[in-house]
TrEMBL record:
It comes from Rhizobium beringeri. Coiled coil: none annotated. This is Transglutaminase family protein. Residues 176-247 form the Transglutaminase-like domain. It holds the Pfam family Transglut_core. InterPro entries: Bac_transglu_N, Papain-like_cys_pep_sf, Transglutaminase-like. It comes from the Bacteria. SUPFAM superfamilies: Cysteine proteinases.
Length: 292
């Protein structure tokens, strides 16, 4: 599937900001046998006084830029063309939950995709007893790691209501869990914590979801902004799989990857500091247009 993507992120300040330094992770990745970035560009207005590019620990192309002069608005636009490949349906050769620790202990690598990075607490995710208890209800001893992941994905989708007004970007997973409401970021964080509490490595995926539904199907929730879903390590044979608890589906050709991380803090699209006071407003608009 070939897509044209466009993303607009705009910020306006009550009082002109200055001395602003930001870091962006917005461009879709090229991933072997998964997706290919055909072309892409990012424009920033006002034009930055300084700009540099680097690759972070998780191999994300990252841009840092600085705006010294006072400015009332910041406008960031990304355009890209991406080819997404269909993924074969994998048979479940993942181990039983009781056997997973032995497979993890056999992994000596500390590369960015090592499961060891995705087991413990991370900047935004600290274990919560309520979420661990919730996870155990899906972890029957006769189930494999993959089966447990699918069961948790389906249960979160059933038990939680998609509500963009219920939470903010800073809502904790436990707060969203108690509300039983939220958006893709909340469902993804809750599912990651639930899986980690069982000893199943899990991480955060940031990306895009197509905006035009297949014929005869309802539009997928989360398509008006950047989307998030979960990456799960299911043993040496299977490796990583990706599930979308917001829509209770495996990530497929509708899902376009921008970044992988332990939680949202590793993949924030735009983050930074600036000198100002008063309030600010942000807008985000996404178009994912399938070409064939």
């Amino acid at each position: 599937m070939l897509y044209d993507l466009s993303l607009h992120m705009g910020y306006s300040y009550d009082v002109p900001a200055s001395g602003a330094r930001h870091v962006m992770r917005l461009m879709p990745l090229s991933l072997p046998n998964r997706q290919r970035l055909v072309a892409g560009s990012i424009t920033i207005s006002p034009t930055p006084d300084e700009q540099s590019h680097f690759v972070d620990f998780f191999h994300h192309p990252t841009t840092s830029f600085m705006l010294r002069a006072p400015h009332e608005t910041l406008d960031i636009r990304m355009q890209a063309r991406v080819q997404v490949e269909s993924q074969p349906i994998a048979a479940d050769f993942s181990p039983l939950l009781a056997d997973l620790p032995e497979e993890i202990s056999g992994i000596w690598s500390l590369a960015p995709d090592s499961p060891h990075h995705f087991l413990g607490d991370s900047p935004r995710l600290t274990q919560a007893r309520e979420i661990a208890d919730y996870a155990r209800s899906c972890a029957m001893p006769e189930l494999t790691a993959m089966q447990i992941a699918h069961a948790l994905c389906a249960r979160i989708n059933k038990d939680f209501t998609y509500d963009p007004d219920a939470t903010t970007v800073d809502t904790t997973p436990l707060e969203a869990f108690k509300l039983k409401r939220g958006v893709c970021q909340d469902f993804t964080h809750i599912m990651i914590l639930a899986l980690r509490s069982l000893g199943i490595p899990a991480g955060y995926v940031s990306g895009f979801l197509r905006t035009i539904p297949p014929p005869g199907k309802e539009r997928l929730e989360g398509a008006d902004a950047m989307h998030a879903w979960v990456r799960i390590w299911c043993g040496e044979t299977i490796g990583w799989i990706e599930l979308d608890p917001t829509n209770n589906i495996p990530a497929g050709t509708d899902h376009i990857v921008v970044a992988f991380g332990r939680d949202y803090s590793d993949v924030v699209p735009v983050i930074g500091v600036l000198k100002s006071y008063g309030g600010q407003r942000a807008v985000q608009a996404v178009d994912v247009i399938p070409l064939k």
